[in-house]
Specification:
150 residues; mainly alpha; 2 domains; two-stranded antiparallel ribbon; 2 strands; 58% helix
Length: 150
């Protein structure tokens, strides 16, 4: 099997526009295939952008347009919108933070459970430490009363 290598050839004179500046020509098919791969990616990206633009354009042409003032009012879960900005209670953000914390815990526990035999005792001790730290955070939130809804 023949290996493909880069062998530049330096030409001067007319090939470089009349000046005596050396120009490098790629003497292998390796560089050509490399650039061809990028060209293929560029063609597919252009096709994807073109298809998205065509779909948005066709949708804009075909959709019905019936402007109504009520369509532009903010929707607040069935309640008439109030003027200004409404402030939510901090407790809702704490619930969201606790959810994210335990969701991330699940993301770490599943791969650990799959590879438990390969990780042996070290992996078990590390996961116990991880779960204890999260349990301490939950205990702290519980003691502070964050988990009470009312």
């Amino acid at each position: 099997m023949k290996s493909l290598t880069y062998t530049p050839r330096v030409l001067t004179g007319i090939a470089s526009g009349g000046a005596h500046v050396p120009t490098v020509h790629l003497g292998s098919t390796l560089a050509a295939s490399y650039l061809q791969a990028y060209f293929t990616v560029a063609v597919f990206m252009a096709a994807a952008v073109g298809m998205v633009g065509a779909m948005l354009g066709v949708g804009r042409l075909l959709r019905p347009t019936r402007p109504q003032d009520q369509k532009y009012i903010s929707y607040e879960s069935g309640v008439d919108p109030l003027g200004g900005w409404g402030q939510a209670h901090v407790r809702y953000y704490l619930y969201a933070l606790l959810f994210v914390m335990f969701d991330v815990e699940a993301v770490f526990i599943f791969p650990w459970a799959v590879r438990l035999e390969a990780l042996s005792t070290y992996g078990l001790v590390e996961m116990i430490i991880f779960i204890v730290v999260l349990a301490l955070g939950l205990l702290y939130a519980w003691r502070k009363g964050v988990l009470r809804w009312a």
